[in-house]
Specification:
Shape: elongated
Number of helices: 14
CATH topology of the largest domain: hpI Integrase, Chain A
Strand order of the largest sheet: 1-2-3
CATH architecture of the largest domain: Orthogonal Bundle
Radius of gyration: 22 Å
Helix content: 40-55%
CATH superfamily of the largest domain: Intergrase catalytic core
Length: about 325
């Protein structure tokens, strides 16, 4: 890219970032869309404000070969936003990139397998994070970002703030989970975070939660130690190791990896909780999303809190209490 083209691209890239903010896009979406446009510019080696169909075809051909379809879709959306809102040009050629439509169902862990997995998790912080993720049907980011002030012990609820889609929601807090969260907190007594990461330089309290990648690796190690042969992962497809994510995305669609969150939803429905209550607990915007991951049953009960506590209480024997030595 020539110096003049680089300056032009830097100016357009800055406009792109500001436009994405004005459209209320989430920080992760802004980063992903801008990264896709930068990747395109690096591939064609000139400012991407005047691309030929051949260049676009070549870019997406190599992207499909080197990355998973999730990355292809994100780049396509980012480039479309760039052209439509920055260059003020339509993108009819986007129909050239049509991701395959796969309808897969994840492997579902049984309650006994979840209990086994938690029991063999080696470190207290990872064991409690796994319990919290499963027992409240959380996404991994929601678990790691939990704060002391989010816990409502009187109502036995947890306030999830600005979760997916920038939406708040309340979820039922099982008594077993509250006990283990409290025991874990007593090992570090962080002023705000329930799952703090590394201490700040100089020995001050951590300023960020535990690392996502380390948490996922601990989950996979526990699954191996528990001799669980199903394809399983903790719920966070967006933040898995890039090579693992692309390998899964490119693999044949014979069924997605089972996740603690999906297993939790299935167990709630099998226990008799109606689909609407499961949708609220998991924070799904659409009931179709919930129905995709659960086996629907005829039974329906209204006592949501009692059902969830009964389900999670079955894990009590497998959950070892957190101790300062372990933390």
């Amino acid at each position: 890219m020539t110096r003049n083209e680089q300056r032009r691209f830097d100016r357009l890239h800055d406009q792109l970032l500001r436009a994405l903010k004005r459209h209320g896009k989430a920080r992760k979406t802004i980063d992903a869309y801008a990264r896709g446009v930068r990747r395109l510019a690096a591939f064609v080696d000139h400012c991407p404000d005047d691309l030929s169909v051949e260049e676009l075809n070549a870019y997406f051909d190599q992207l499909i070969d080197s990355h998973g379809w999730s990355t292809v879709k994100i780049d396509r959306n980012g480039i479309r936003f760039f052209y439509e809102h920055i260059l003020d040009e339509p993108m009819p050629w986007l129909q050239m990139v049509v991701p395959p439509k796969w309808k897969t169902l994840p492997d579902v862990l049984t309650v006994e397998e979840i209990a086994r997995l938690i029991a063999v998790t080696r470190e207290c912080r990872y064991r409690v994070s796994c319990l919290a993720t499963y027992s409240m049907g959380l996404r991994l980011g929601e678990t790691l970002n939990l704060e002391v002030g989010d816990i409502d012990r009187e109502r036995m609820r947890v306030h999830l703030r600005l979760a997916k889609g920038n939406k708040d929601r309340f979820v039922v807090l099982p008594a077993v989970t509250l006990r283990e969260l409290r025991a874990l907190w007593c090992t570090h007594r962080h002023p705000s975070l329930l799952f703090p990461g590394r201490p700040a330089p100089g020995g001050g309290p951590a300023t960020a939660p535990m690392d996502r990648g380390n948490t996922q690796r601990a989950f996979r190690r526990a699954a191996a130690d528990a001799r669980i042969r199903k394809r399983v992962s903790i719920h966070s497809r967006r933040h898995t190791d890039p090579q693992d994510a692309d390998r899964v995305a490119r693999s044949a669609p014979v069924g997605g990896p089972g996740k603690a969150r999906h297993s939790y939803a299935t167990h709630l429905v099998e226990a008799g909780l109606n689909l609407r209550a499961v949708q609220d607990q998991l924070g799904h915007a659409s009931p179709e999303t919930t129905a995709r991951y659960v086996r629907i049953t005829e039974r329906s009960r209204d006592n949501q809190e009692a059902l969830i506590n009964t389900l999670v209480d079955s894990l009590s024997r497998a959950v070892r209490r957190a101790t300062p030595a372990e933390g």
